[in-house]
Amino acid sequence: MTEAARFSPLDRPNSYVGRSVSRPNAAGLVRGRGRFVDDLTLPRMLHVAFVRSPHAHARITAIDTAEAAKMPGVVRVATIDDIRDYCSPWVGVLDHLKGIKSAPQPPLADGKVFSQGQPVVAIVAASRAQAEDAAELVDVSYEPLEPVTDPVAALEPDATVIHPELGDNLCFQRGIDAGEVDRAFAEAAHVVETTMRFNRHTGVTLEPRSILCDFDPSERALTLYMSVQCPHMSKNLFAKHLGLDENRVRVVCGDVGGSFGIKIHTYPDEMTAAALSVMLERPVKFVADRLESFVTDIHARDHDVSARMALDAEGRVSAIEMDDLTGIGSYSVYPRTSGIEANQVLNLTGGPYAHKNYRARARVVFQNKNDMCQYRGVGHPIAVAVGEHLMDKAARMTGLDAAEIRRRNFIPEDAYPYTAPSGAIYERQSHHACLEKLLEACDYKGLRRDQSAQRESGVYRGIGLASLVEITNPSPAFYGVGGARIASQDGCTLRLDPTGGVTLATGVTEQGQGTETIVAQVAATVIGIDVNDIRVITGDTDAVPYGGGTWASRGAGIGGEAAFQAGKALRWNILGVAATILQERAEALDIRDGCIVNAKDGMERMPLSELGRIVYFRGDTLPKDLAPELVVTRHYTQNQYPFCFTNAAHACHLEVDPATGLIRLLNYWVVEDCGTVINPKLVAEQTRGGVVQGLGAALFEECLYSGEGQLMNGSLAEYLLPMAGEMPDIFVDHVTTPTATSELGAKGVGEAGTAGAPAAVMNALNDALQPFGVEMTDMPFTPEKVLRALGRIGGGGED
Amino acid sequence: MSRRAITLRVNGEEVTALVEPRLNLADFLRQEAELTGTHVGCEHGVCGACTVKVDGRAVRGCLMLAVQCEGAEIETVEGLAASAQGSELCEAFVEQNALQCGFCTPGMLITAAELLDDNPAPTREEVRDHLSGNYCRCTGYQAIVDAVMDVAAKREMS
Ligand code: FES
Ligand code: FES
Do A686 and A750 meet the contact criterion of CB atoms below 8 Å apart? Predict the structure, then answer.
């Protein structure tokens, strides 16, 4: 069904679904009027700085804070013994990840440190500078313990066990064995194999993690101004571990300077800041500096994968087998756990393709490094890169073109809903349509011709394709069933104001992706008012319906549907009141451009401002038995499938200079299918930003650790990120397959770009390197590694 | 640490304050002048979030001390947005969705304004090059380039 058909009953002056409405909240941000946590100052506010562990693994033998406590401006120096009674430890496990284990994580180190950067002592002072001055005088004595950093070594029987009470260093493992894998490999016409390395990298939100905690002892009420993605989850967790009544904890999330999964986890320093506010009964602010961000913001990926694929003589995949080993640092992160990423890798590898036989194993391992957890794309970049690399290898082995082998293997159009051997269920996907549109957009044949011609003159260009599935609109199967109080439902409240405008409060949150705009577009469309007459409230747990916030690309699909249903309800309530006032049947009336009109001929009957005036101020003129209700709330949970999967096809075009190893990105194309497109510009921009994040992971970004567990590049000068000069323009187009799980039909789009880019760039690179007979599968693909692979510098090639 | 008195002009207004010698310009603007549009992303001169104009040139606010700005004329994003040229750029940013979270935006705007002052008709590559010292995690940069090109085109027409 096309969007036009789907929305045709609403295709009136206020039909905003499918239009590139610009974001009202952008106007303040460009004028320097954002409200980020660090912009807030409260009376008697204090600042906290931390003394952090320089060791990856050590026993603390003594802490001397006497000198620090005497420093100017210092109000309190706290160790775990001071805050133990204010904050209980937490454990990052979920019931549905069978066998997952982790140790209790304290807010400040309790006797031992398990990673560099773990907070040991907190100093509270009148200014951050004073707190940092005092921090330098804290003397912590350590007895270093053996750091366990390599995940393979961590699993050896004689390895040092990081948390002895857990028995070993294995946090979680899971296996899948579906169909007849051994037989499929034995009977295969072709088998391709690979080993791949996925670098550890991190989010680098430009605004660091920030929290301002304000405890009011008179009511034992805590207000947390936070840069966070999921205010209600934070409210629950802070209340629980600080021993406060959850109803008296309020989270206020103003502008958020980027999150991408970084700002969705429980961090010891933030918990400590809140505990100190409770202890001192004063506002306490903590804003991570860049070094703190690098060593303590959750890291991402860090996977070693070996995988193989069996194919028949026609190039049809008959089986996939893979093994994934991932290092997650010293704790499974609370409350989402560090097991979900590997779980996703298993669920999604080979996702777009029909094959019955699948065996996979994931092992998630503790190590003395910073913690790894869910970051934009969660597991997808690994799953997509593994599957797509094998597909390209298979194409080369069988002599098929990269596009043709995908066509042959996509899940057949008539097979939906389709259950993959991993157990993932796909409602309906559009892999064929996306790929064909992509090939046309990038002029695939032209690119191939250009490639051959350029090779003649010693220019090495490559074209990489990647097809993918992406999880969005999660049901409670994601976290709720595992016992975490992370809502998969979300709500929207709409209030018709006396002016005829509408105030909309939603549980989904805004980090710049445009949530506030799209929920307003949906509500305005359904009600029949100008989108500018809607004011949106997000992020304040005292003001918005209970909801999960932003994760798993759920804002548009879940928050959008809640806005849709609330809009319908408010519209009906308004028409009911209007019908009484106008002595008309409600069915004969409509709302257009903020006016009650005749449904038939569009004749204006009464503006909403007049209806508002009568209801709010002249109730005496209405019939006694009419109870006008101009505030409505509707909630939505997607529970027909565990997830609504989106799909996309990416193409990357690049050039490798064999003399320098430099990779130049020439072009990038994406055709994606997120169902109903609410705002094409915002979908495209989410896609572009996501792609660039994926390109960064594949080409530049890596948290480099020494064997002793020391991060060696914890600054923006040393950790390379994608900048404007190196990035290509990115073409984005859509195929539209609305999900039938909701009336709106929207699926998510926030992560698919990041999911596909590493695979596409890797495939393009290996395509470019074909004449040299080498392949690279060790991200990031730095110039140095390219030169090594080409044998131009020493140190051994790859693969 | 003994504080020092400084007087400077910020967005056309005179500001006098007693500051610690170690206070950098970005923190001065945020904490003393209470102009929180200037952001701090790295504090060591790499991310560009703190970019402001000092006597007409774009500089890193985190790399300059407030006491070095005695007598200087500072323009922050708040001042830029209030000017005719600046508001044109702001509108183009909104129009093109050249910002998502908006944290890099003040620095991007100041940097882009400087580019257009120096080179009113840049190519896309020149825009990308000039913005290469400003990190943005959200947008992927394309929309920012589009917005700057739009303003250049508009100015050329008028
Ligand atoms: S804060 Fe000044 S350049 Fe990053
Ligand atoms: S818009 Fe978020 S960093 Fe640029």
Answer: yes
